Amino acid sequence: MISKNAKILIVDDDTDVLLAVKMLLKPEVKEVVTEKNPEKLMSILAKDKFDVILLDMNYKSALNTGNEGFFWLKKIMEKDKDAVVIMITAYGDVELAVRSLKEGATDFILKPWRNDKMLATIADAYQKSQSKSKKNGSVEVKESSPVTIKDNSGTFMDLIGESEVMMDVRKKIEKVAPTDANILILGENGTGKELIARALHKFSLRADKPFVSVDLGALTDTLFESELFGHKKGAYTDAKEDRVGRFEVASGGTLFLDEIGNISMPHQAKLLTALQNRQITRLGTNRPIDVDIRLICATNMPIYEMATQNKFRKDLIYRVNTVEIMLPPLRQRGNDIVVLAEHFAKIYAQKYNKAVPQFEEATLRKLKQYSWHGNVRELQHAVERAVIMAERSVLRPDDFNFTQFEATPEPMGQAEAMRLDEMEKNTIMRVIEKHQGNITKAARELGITRTALYRRLEKHDI
Predict the structure, then answer these.
(1) Which pLDDT does position 51 carry in this prediction?
(2) Which of 100, 280, 429, 456 has a CA positioned 20 to 30 A from the CA of residue 85?
């Protein structure tokens, strides 16, 4: 989460972008300032100080160089060498974004962005801003949170839980984060695999370098190599310009490959070659490029079972899992359900300007007895809905109405499994119809990711 004390400046000549980002950030931070004319940037910075600056790469300004973002980035860094700047760039300008990191930017965001990725990037940048302030002797506002991972850069605020299994996860993170060991994170959807990946990066020796996340489950076969390794102009029909792949973008930092269990065997072979050689070759060229990455992978698939069935390469598993972190499902975390529910209730009460609600004992029992197949993500959305809709200061059991795909897992026969598939299909169709085809809203209500929902749509031929 981004701090409620944060002040954010957004500079972009596209008023739609300014409005979209302002609407996204307004409930999350103290102040959002927008400016469409970069010529006014230095006068704004002369009057006020911002925790994070979002800066577009290109403007239709008098400067008209095509790389105006570099000019204004340089001006910002000359004024304040500790400024935290996130560059906003179009999908095809990744190479420029990488150059901006070398010239002082903290991170970059690609258009079009996903809101959760945008918020996570800004949250990381804000933490870096606070770390710089602390080193320079500024007073840092600390926020309470039931978290124990600490080092000289502060506290990782989003890893919440008091259960024994989560304590074990924290200990493992503390041990392996400072190393360059490859990490494989296993766990069901919604257990927080990307959160763990970001924690590992934050407490690594590469923390000031890029953290690049790739959802492999969302890549088509035709995009796989281009997305990871890049391509040269003319390499294929739609390759209208040179493009840097995610391996190169992440070089020096951390590459997070989510949903690694979803890639095909031919792509597994190409990925293994790149990892073994620490080199990639862009499509359309024969020149290998050295890359220096710390690799973190994640999946919710039964990857070892897949290996015994020859659906996943054993040598690739050995390459990616120097250390393995297993995230428990929420239903196995005991009282963490209560801790997380109370945490989310505080967050959303503040976000929607409501009093922080209390939970009836019967409500807590209901939450602890529910199977939470969407895990922490499902709990978060359930609490948010309850806070919005509740008419009392105490949340009662009837404030939580769950959309549940399946009963508590237990052995089932083929006929029962078929009925369960039909139930899942009908539930998905009902929720999508309710939201008039809006996949984002449907996935949120179902407590799963958009990618997972698309996979289910394909599975059920919807």
Answers:
(1) 92
(2) 280
* 163-326 shares its CATH topology with 333-399: no
Low-confidence ranges of the chain (pLDDT < 50): 62-66, 137-157, 405-413, 416
Architecture of domain 163-326: 3-Layer(aba) Sandwich (3.40)
> Which architecture, in CATH terms, is 414-459?
Orthogonal Bundle (1.10)
Q: pTM to 2 decimals?
A: 0.59
Q: Which of 3.40.50.2300, 3.40.30.10, 3.20.20.210, 3.90.1580.10 would CATH assign to domain 7-135?
A: 3.40.50.2300
What local confidence, expressed as pLDDT, does residue 179 receive? 92
Is CATH 3.30.360.10 what the domain over 333-399 is classified as, yes or no?
A: no
